[in-house]
Amino acid sequence: MTERFALDLARAMSTMLANDGQVVVGSDYRTTSAELRATVLGGLLGGGVDVVDAGIVPTPVLAFGVRAVGANAGIMVTASHNPPEDNGVKCYSHEGREYIPEEEQILEQFIAWRKFTDVTWDRMGTQIVAPDFVDEYAQLILRRVGSLRRKLKVVVDCANGTTYNLTPLILSKLGCEVISVNAHPDGRFPGRPAEPSPENLVTACNFVRSLKADLGIAHDGDGDRLAVIDEKGRYVNNDTVLAFFARLLLAENGPGRIITSVDTSSRIYVVARSSGGKVERTRLGKTHAVLDEENRKSIRLCCEPWKIIDPTWGFWGDAVYAACRLVQSLGQTKGPVSSLFRGIPENPQKRFFFRCPDESKDIVMAKVSQELTRQKDVNEVWTFDGVRVNFHDESWILVRKSGTEGKIRIYCEGRTPRRLKQLISKSSSLVTSAIKSAHKSNVRPTQN
Amino acid sequence: MTERFALDLARAMSTMLANDGQVVVGSDYRTTSAELRATVLGGLLGGGVDVVDAGIVPTPVLAFGVRAVGANAGIMVTASHNPPEDNGVKCYSHEGREYIPEEEQILEQFIAWRKFTDVTWDRMGTQIVAPDFVDEYAQLILRRVGSLRRKLKVVVDCANGTTYNLTPLILSKLGCEVISVNAHPDGRFPGRPAEPSPENLVTACNFVRSLKADLGIAHDGDGDRLAVIDEKGRYVNNDTVLAFFARLLLAENGPGRIITSVDTSSRIYVVARSSGGKVERTRLGKTHAVLDEENRKSIRLCCEPWKIIDPTWGFWGDAVYAACRLVQSLGQTKGPVSSLFRGIPENPQKRFFFRCPDESKDIVMAKVSQELTRQKDVNEVWTFDGVRVNFHDESWILVRKSGTEGKIRIYCEGRTPRRLKQLISKSSSLVTSAIKSAHKSNVRPTQN
Amino acid sequence: MTERFALDLARAMSTMLANDGQVVVGSDYRTTSAELRATVLGGLLGGGVDVVDAGIVPTPVLAFGVRAVGANAGIMVTASHNPPEDNGVKCYSHEGREYIPEEEQILEQFIAWRKFTDVTWDRMGTQIVAPDFVDEYAQLILRRVGSLRRKLKVVVDCANGTTYNLTPLILSKLGCEVISVNAHPDGRFPGRPAEPSPENLVTACNFVRSLKADLGIAHDGDGDRLAVIDEKGRYVNNDTVLAFFARLLLAENGPGRIITSVDTSSRIYVVARSSGGKVERTRLGKTHAVLDEENRKSIRLCCEPWKIIDPTWGFWGDAVYAACRLVQSLGQTKGPVSSLFRGIPENPQKRFFFRCPDESKDIVMAKVSQELTRQKDVNEVWTFDGVRVNFHDESWILVRKSGTEGKIRIYCEGRTPRRLKQLISKSSSLVTSAIKSAHKSNVRPTQN
Amino acid sequence: MTERFALDLARAMSTMLANDGQVVVGSDYRTTSAELRATVLGGLLGGGVDVVDAGIVPTPVLAFGVRAVGANAGIMVTASHNPPEDNGVKCYSHEGREYIPEEEQILEQFIAWRKFTDVTWDRMGTQIVAPDFVDEYAQLILRRVGSLRRKLKVVVDCANGTTYNLTPLILSKLGCEVISVNAHPDGRFPGRPAEPSPENLVTACNFVRSLKADLGIAHDGDGDRLAVIDEKGRYVNNDTVLAFFARLLLAENGPGRIITSVDTSSRIYVVARSSGGKVERTRLGKTHAVLDEENRKSIRLCCEPWKIIDPTWGFWGDAVYAACRLVQSLGQTKGPVSSLFRGIPENPQKRFFFRCPDESKDIVMAKVSQELTRQKDVNEVWTFDGVRVNFHDESWILVRKSGTEGKIRIYCEGRTPRRLKQLISKSSSLVTSAIKSAHKSNVRPTQN
Predict the structure, then answer these.
(1) What's the DSSP call for residue A148?
(2) Alpha-carbon distance C74 to nearest alpha carbon in chain D (angstroms)
(3) Angle, to 10 degrees, between the axis of helix C267-275 and the axis of helix C238-253?
(4) How far is C282 from chain D (nearest CA, A)?
(5) Do D121 and C85 touch (CB under 8 A)?
(6) Which of A423, B123, C404, D345 is the most exposed place for a label (fewest CB within 10 A)?
(7) In the predicted model, is pLDDT for residue B447 greater than 60?
(8) How would residue A440 be classed by pLDDT, with cut points 50, 70 and 90?
(9) Chain D: residue nearest B131 by CA?
């Protein structure tokens, strides 16, 4: 993302807001975030919009801040869990909900056509001192969660990101004994890559084990993602964490809808079924899009890997809040953190990919799609985001083309390890042969 | 000035500084200054340059700040004394000297060719908290000027600009009784136009008179211009103020050179002659350009209307410092402020203009130039910025084309009112006939 | 007020709040305010209370801020309109109402007995970044008042106090042409004494006249007092301004109660009578004390000289809001500002005093009280704050002992100038003879 | 330390500075530091001294800041490495040198006698915005140390203190791969006690080992103490670290004096001997006291356990600077960090104590002193801070009474483990019998 684009985006946002109102602007610690935040700020002021500069904050705090001050929108400069050289923006509605595709399209069209409305010199926006969003946010969580019934020892890995002065402190105030790792802010992510994947949390897992901590909490660089490490130092499967929150929120708020992305496990059905939940699927990265005024009352949870939206708390993915809720639940039991996940089936999973040139992706997907749906024992087929076939035994295969890289991605989950092996073998051969036939060339399958 | 230009300028500056080092950025209170300052800041950070954001400060404080922190350059967003809808930038060298034409050309060429060097994500600039430049600056003046020997009552008119929290306070601390007018900051300049011209200071003059103050001090919007009102509420001629400073600084620092712009009075020769000064002329707005390392020791003053550079203090035009020096001088005498200007000839002046289309300006100037130099009694002719003829009796005529408007400007000063009338009549007829012959059209002479 | 007292006060406040909750702290520009604000802040934090440091703000903005953030209390370091060497504090309830005598007594007793509850090291308060109260406050007024129907030229005299960046700007935004005087902040009050009394506004009055402004607005140092200058440069009597607001608010909000202090004119009855208002009197400085939850609905205005509380806006004296409402009213008429006061009787007044040693005050007051009530034509006698006798013709005399100086103060208002003269003479002789008989000594009556 | 004391201290400092000049004030993150810093600030302003509020900074940065802005003194609110419930202040001279006993006595006497000079209301101090000391400090180190010749993997344990945003970042910028632990700021020290003793760094040591890091760096809560962990995860003896710096600085700056406290190892002699150094001893906590203008040129290092003063860098204990120098040295070698300490004898040590009532301490010390000096093979006896006997074989015993607790402390170092055992046994029996004879009571020796 260039500064010119940041300027255009700010102008597009100003135009969309009719050159009036207020926008909260924040960023993460990336080395390119300060320049982009300053440029966005300049563009908004020049577009006649007042700006509340929230500075460097976790993404959920930015979304919270938009709602807290009654602003018209929010802009967060961040590339979330991506490498330090990347950057981008997330836009938020006045309620703190990330922009839905329709809203993003309006911005994109303004930018594409450069149709920005200008304002005269005497109608420029003014910069407004931001209130202490981090403190307000923390107070609100503390009031909601209360204090723990028992002392828990927690390792918190902040990925050298914006949660460094929030998650460890708030867990301390809830009554935890906190040991932090990678908690000095540094946009170069020196301690580990920002994505809280199992590979990146090996150190944190070891740390939980050697300290005999009750659990570990890990974030990405901007605090919208949560990974959990159990009392034995084992990484808890993302989908299992989501299923835990589905069960928790259905129990708290009564039967309702669970919105989850196309790539999550079938285990969420098992949980939902027994708790009065109805699972609905969306495209990846769009679970928030259903949160309109009509729907939101019936929705108990929107979730995708590492991201949790509890609509009774806010319409944004919030890993700090989720961490506090998990710890609160643990405090109410006597067992270890792994006992919270009891009853959630741990069907084995695998994610991998094959390289495929961009120009062949669509042919490959068409071919694979056709073949997959012909498999036996297929219960259901989804085609709104790649193709996913669900088998009668809760096993499934998802094949998607990558939006940013030359890859076809495959996700498999099997009822048993053996079944998983079968699915991997089947899907691999379907995809590789489709790529081959598309290219008449020798494709070296690479697994990740 | 657009935000895109501000971004380009910042990138040009970064490129010029080899994507390294530190720049101090400031602005005045104009409604468009906040957006431009933010965009400049973003552009510099993105160009790999560290930024000290000085916020809203008087222009002399920005220049002082560059020198104080040892930065590599400074950028001030301001349109100085111009109307509130205008805006622009001034760039400063590491010594606080405004950029000279050669430096400006380098920036302009980078911008024209869009030849900006980029830096990688891990070499972005960082934003540095600015020290309290206003306080440091005030302390330094106070140490230099000391306290007054007698109490003076001063009216200060801040033009609703950036000097509001500096000039009145510093004069108070020197021991003055200060009454301020137009001293709340407002970039719309509600109290009066920002230029401290006699027309715009009628109210301030009345105020000095009715309060029986000892003097009045008026600034433009960003504090690089000084106008003086005497104890009777009369506006003191700009050139007389310059002559006063020439005399003061020659007396203090010994014989030396006085650099002044093409459009100032001959009275400065009278003063210089008796104080060991040698007057040199430069183009308008470029008196600072001679302040290189070799020259500066021999220079006692650079000045143009309302702007005063004392090289022993700093290489920038500084109306706050100048106001303090004037008040200090007054405190050392027993007479009224008008007595400070004794011995400076008050030859009458007039400035006016005729409208002339841009495309005819050069022909007109050539014609007028030819005619003017043919006048009798001409002692000297200067042609480096318009044409100025100096007569043997210290009368003179200057004709210049406006750089920004469709105007030919005329400046006349006569030894006597009658002589002035003659010069006005002569120059008017020369210019109007040149315009007529250039256009064969009826030009309505408009006087300002 | 010493720093030790400031520390004790903060501890008393913490104790009163049970060492919990949040207090907003602000101050004016006095030279002693920064130290006292810092000490109060330290004391509150040490007493376990969270602090929002609002910095330097007008008193009404501090009160507004307490309500805006939902704090438990507010402390404003200010000596309001008193000389620059004085200082003190005003405490505010969570609603922004100044503490009533009962609340003040609790604080005083904690201080007197030094009964402060301490908290352990781990329960200290935390300092919270303040939101932009000045902006929020200004936005709220602008939404309420709207923009003016006609352009008005207004002179604003800020007494070099905290309103410098609020009243002039907000009037500009309403559509006024604003010329400010004494608008650079300086806690030494260089321009004029902070009290907006007629004597101190001679310059501002002249200024209104010479600029042919539509009106003048003057504040004290902290913005809770409003004085008005009419289109002819005449100071509008305080009590007339109060009567104007009584009429305005009764018209807007329907019949109700008008609370005013013992020392204001009877003209407010005239206005109230015709607008459905019922006037009630309180001790001086305590008109806010009736604003409890039960009473506030029936109250239309609390007022004392220069101070106006409109309960539909807030429970604090607010001269910035009042100025905007006055200007709004003027914008709705076509006449001059003096026409707003039509129908309000301008009975002549005089305030003066006699020196009297503290030890004799009570005897003198008893004697004077006895004599005054024996006068003929007395309609009503009030003794809750000094003694005031109201005559049948709306003339009245008030005699009060000063709380801070060795003085007996006399206030007279007569139906006619002649009647006033009579009352002055009568009250003077009563008081001087009482002082004489108390001391058997020669008292030189001094009038102020 | 109470707020009242903080106020008195500030007043004493103001008095000492003749109610003039400038003081830089900072604090650590302790929960009681904010209130004390605010109160100190209030007291200084009220004492007529200008204040630069540096906010929360490491202690070496505060000392650096005093020198950087040319202030007259500095006050740091911190209890250094002590438990979170403690707090106190350190005062600094205009050069950034901690106050010497003579200066402390002056302050103490002003406080004891409450002889504070007051200033009038118009001479109060003003608060000055602090420059970005952390950035300035980091820049200076980076210029001095340069970048590393090889990549080093470093674990940094910040004790949840003020170095969290300094040491990890600066080591990154030097070219290290940094993994931080306990790096989120929290004045409750949740991760480990603030003292960087071996017991408190068990986790950090494990961490270095399991991450296969090149070394570990640990601080106390305010950054004036440095502990080092070697490539095998072993805690490096404090005295060995000091000897390393003695050798380094003697090599860099030529032969000179090494000032160290009474309680450090004899190994420093070994190093000094071979590097042209002369070791001198001072009381514990007073090694900085010799740094007057005359002495400083000849001094190469002042040191006591964990604290390092390099006079060519600054006159304050600076663990951030020391960490950078150590890492720089390591970068210049090819070996592991342990190789830096080669040639420094690792004679075994032990520190322990016996409980002893305050009233008996002096008798006990007198007795023990007498006995100790009678031991055979004694080479030298020091009595300026407890009693230390140095034997001919470089073994030694030090006995000191604790200044703050009811304890007699014993320090032993032996040439061999067997010799150490002997010394422990001897000193223990001397001390216990002295305590017994002083009390005729049964003392249970407790070892720490």
Answers:
(1) -
(2) 18
(3) 10
(4) 34
(5) yes
(6) C404
(7) no
(8) low
(9) D131
